[in-house]
């Protein structure tokens, strides 16, 4: 929303932080900090976890960004298939959260019984990478500075992407930064 409506959005708070290293031309102070100070042990663990996810866990994203309707038909056709698709993410993308059967079935029911149906949940990846309002597309759009939109960053140890802290500051004016000892991608639910 901050990319599309920067004059209307006062701030964004995110936990899946997609950022690149600061460069000498775009963020010279952050680049100097990045060059002079080594990563903390937590940042090294975050980078390792992010790299593992990027190399071994992004097949779902490629499918949803490029051919969402094929997957949408499969998810809408089979409640068991939908359960498997969602459960895998809930299990793998959390920090050992003890899901109950009722919680899992609630999540699956929200997808299955919604008016839009389960296909809508995968279509957003396709739409987000093709928005006509963005000057850049896809992943690059989510990793660029948004002027005038204040930013809050929350770092969780099992989030899918958690870059070093200096990288996160390349995304905008950071007014809140917090680190948590536990939590993953579904941090709002887990914590």
In brief, what are we looking at here?
By secondary structure, the protein is mainly alpha-helical. It has helices at residues 28-36, 41-56, 59-66, 68-77, 79-92, 101-113, 119-128, 138-142, 165-168, 187-190, and strands spanning 11-14, 150-155, 173-179.
Helix content: 40-55%
* CATH topology term: Rossmann fold
- The total beta strand count reads 3
CATH architectural group: 3-Layer(aba) Sandwich
Query: Which regions have little confidence, pLDDT < 50, spanning 5+ residues?
Result: none
Whole-number tally of structural domains:
1
**Estimated share of beta-strand residues:** 5-15%
Largest sheet: 3 strands, parallel
Shape assignment: globular
Can you tell me the CATH class? Alpha Beta
The SSE order reads: EHHHHHHHHEHEH
Report the radius of gyration as a whole number of Å: 18 Å
Structural class: mainly alpha
The largest beta-sheet arranges its strands as: 1-2-3
Please explain how this structure is put together.
With 191 residues, the chain is mostly helical. It has one domain: Rossmann fold (3-Layer(aba) Sandwich), CATH 3.40.50.1820. Helix content is 49%, strand content 9%. Strands 1-2-3 form a three-stranded parallel beta sheet, with no helix packed on it. Helix 3 packs across helix 7, helix 4 crosses helix 5 (79-92) and helix 4 packs antiparallel against helix 7. The chain is globular, with a radius of gyration of 18 Å. The two termini are 24 Å apart. The model has no long low-confidence stretch (mean pLDDT 89).
